[in-house]
Write a structure and sequence with these properties.
alpha/beta, three-stranded antiparallel beta sheet
Length: 314
């Protein structure tokens, strides 16, 4: 190593490690600024210095390409949570709202589920010039506990943003008896709303994980026996329809008690926007994507990575 090499290393350490300016490096070394610039270039040419640029957008592009190709998605939006260790509902809500605002919803029927994620989307939707034909509640939303589903606030937010009337289902999402549910569904208004839900142009929904602390497990719909049954076999739910990792209905008994769009009906909608995130939901999200329930996806980056890892185990 000659004198020029040693000077180049000295300049590089002062500039890159100590973060001095070129003028400060020149003063430290007792030479001119142009000489420092030449020494820094020499350090690069000799391989003493390598510069890498880590662009998160490029990583996102790879993630989006992998998700799109694996699950035949029409669109994917990756969210980078401001604080990954905290709840990411707000970040997902903002990203989901912006994604929906970018879609051409004029004259279309939009189906909406409920839950914490959907509530955050509704709260972050801005007023638009679009006029959707109607906003349809995809499942019953009345709670039987002190926990709120916020279904009314959610659908109201969508109606306000997209200048559309609402078709609501003021019912429990899960009944105690099949006979009662069947009688209720025969009401002409209820039957009409359910049919409109099956025929929506765009469905906006989330998925839930099947855990004891999950919202749906604590709304008073499910007996302890039903909860134990689901905890043993289900990996997630979409529109309160529980499914297994194999994509099957987790419990026919509970499914028969549920009011709202069915999984096959959801899968048949032209556009199906899934907004979901959180590592604890990764298996539920991956299974929903594998089942073909979504055509569009809004998800946080860590969960997207985990979803693709799970996909490799199929």
């Amino acid at each position: 190593m000659d004198t020029r090499d040693r000077d180049a290393l000295t300049a590089a350490k002062l500039y890159y490690r100590s973060e001095l300016s070129q003028a400060e490096v020149a003063a430290e070394m007792g030479c001119s600024r142009p000489t420092v610039a030449k020494l820094l270039q020499h350090a690069k040419d000799r391989g003493y210095v390598t510069i890498e640029v880590h662009d998160p957008q490029e990583a996102d592009e790879i993630l989006i390409e992998d998700l799109t190709s694996r699950y035949t998605l029409e669109g994917v939006r990756i969210v980078h949570p401001a604080n990954p260790s905290a709840a990411i509902m707000e970040d997902l809500g903002v990203a989901g709202a912006r994604y929906l605002e970018s879609m051409p919803l004029d004259g279309l029927s939009v189906g909406v589920s409920w839950g914490k994620t959907l509530l955050n989307i509704a709260r972050n939707l801005r007023s638009t010039n679009m006029r959707a034909r109607q906003i349809v509640q995809l499942k019953g939303g009345s709670s039987r506990s002190n926990l709120a589903t916020n279904d009314f606030e959610t659908i109201t937010g969508f109606c306000t943003a997209f200048n559309a009337p609402a078709l609501t289902l003021p019912l429990p999402v899960i009944f105690e008896r099949v006979e009662t549910k069947e009688i209720v569904e025969q009401d002409s208004h209820i039957a009409d709303v359910l049919q409109h839900g099956r025929e929506t142009d765009v469905a906006v929904f989330t998925v839930g994980s099947v855990r004891k602390q999950s919202l749906l497990m604590n709304l008073g719909y499910l007996s302890e026996e039903m909860s134990r049954e689901l905890l043993g076999v289900a990996v997630g739910d979409a529109c309160s329809r529980f499914y297994t990792r194999e994509g099957d209905v987790a419990s026919k008994r509970i499914d028969d008690l549920t009011v709202g769009i069915e999984l096959d009906e959801l899968r048949a909608r032209p556009r199906r926007v899934l907004v979901a995130g959180g590592l604890y939901k990764a298996e539920a999200i991956e299974t929903a994507l594998w089942m073909g329930l979504a055509s569009d996806l809004v998800i946080d980056q860590p969960t997207a990575v985990r979803v693709l890892e799970i996909a490799k185990t199929r």
